Amino acid sequence: MESSNLTSVTEFILLGLSSWPELQVHLFLLFLMIYLMILLGNLLIMLLILRDSHLHTPMYFFLINLSSIEIGFTSSVFPQMLVHFLAERKSISYSCCVIQFYTVLSFGIAECYILLVMAYDRYVAIRDPLRYSITMNWGICGMLAAGSWLGGFMLSIVDTVATFQLSFCQNNVINHFLCEMPALLHLSCTDTTHAELVMQVLCIFTLLCPITFIILSYTHIIIAVLKIRSAQGRRKAFSTCSSHILVVTLYFGPIMSLYLKPKSLSSPEYNKIVSVCYFVCTPALNPLIYSLRNKEVKMALRKLLGKPEGA
Fold first, then answer.
1. Higher model confidence: residue 65 or residue 274?
2. pLDDT score, position 99
3. Alpha carbon distance 78, 281 (integer Å)
4. Residue 239 belongs to some domain of the structure
5. Distance CA 99, CA 93 (A)
6. In a domain, 1, yes or no
7. In whole angstroms, what is the distance from residue 288 CA to residue 70 CA?
């Protein structure tokens, strides 16, 4: 009898970042600039690494993977969001919502794992530099990168199925700018216990486990660096890790504050602000962090621009 009262939803309405009509064009221009900066910045990093043979090392191989993931991650959301800034009716079909949910989650999980792999790469480079080329050979690097991508695209299937088995009845208005799990759980008119359990288990394997291993890796790295006698050697070792630590903080911080926060403390506006942080901050700042704080990347950029090294 209860199922007869459930109405199948064929589309969702996304309320977006702001309901004020006068802000829509300004937001469109702002986020268009951000999206173009993300695309151009990450494509430039990839081009520099591919062109310069000095950057053909495991660390930069993983950075290419990170930049590729950032492009896919933001491209799953930004085009739809830009269209909705200028559209009167901000609708997304049920099937497109499923696809967006899956792709965002897939790239998001893959990024968690590639950041973990990059931490392991730095751990091996600093803790055991003499065996680094053997431990991090191209076969191992390829498997670690492939495992990160595969883990993202396989694990996200479980969460996508659990979420879209829920019924949404007649309420199809999502107070968000994308189809994201917390917003969809809030919208459901049926018991979400199973979907929430799946999300919590997934968070353990995709957020808590990676960040725990990253922290452990850097704990061992710090211990190893402090044993280096020369101050210059310590600075050089820390400089190879500082960019990655910053990217990890910018990415994991907002996501963990969203997905590991008690449901009672959640609010649509807070969720939207936090989502903007991890959809904008890491993808946009990643190229700047790795170019401004990395001497090798800056040298590759000078070569691309045809400038002498001392310029």
1. 65
2. 96
3. 14
4. yes
5. 10
6. no
7. 13
Confidence of residue 292 (pLDDT cuts 50, 70, 90): low
Q: What is the pLDDT of residue 3?
A: 43
Contact assessment for residue 82 and residue 28, using Cβ atoms and an 8 Å cutoff = yes
Q: Provide CB contacts within 8 A for 89, sequence distance 6+.
A: 13
Number of folded domains in the chain?
1
Q: Which domain holds residue 33?
A: 10-305
> Rounded distance, CA 12 to CA 110, Å?
27
Residue 5, domain member (yes or no): no
42 vs 64: CA distance, rounded Å: 8
In a domain, 159, yes or no: yes
**CATH code of the domain containing 93:** 1.20.1070.10
Output the CA torsion 269→275→280→281 (10° steps).
Answer: 100
- In tens, the pLDDT along 181-209 reads 888 888 888 888 999 999 999 999 999 99
Q: How much is the average pLDDT of 10-24?
A: 87
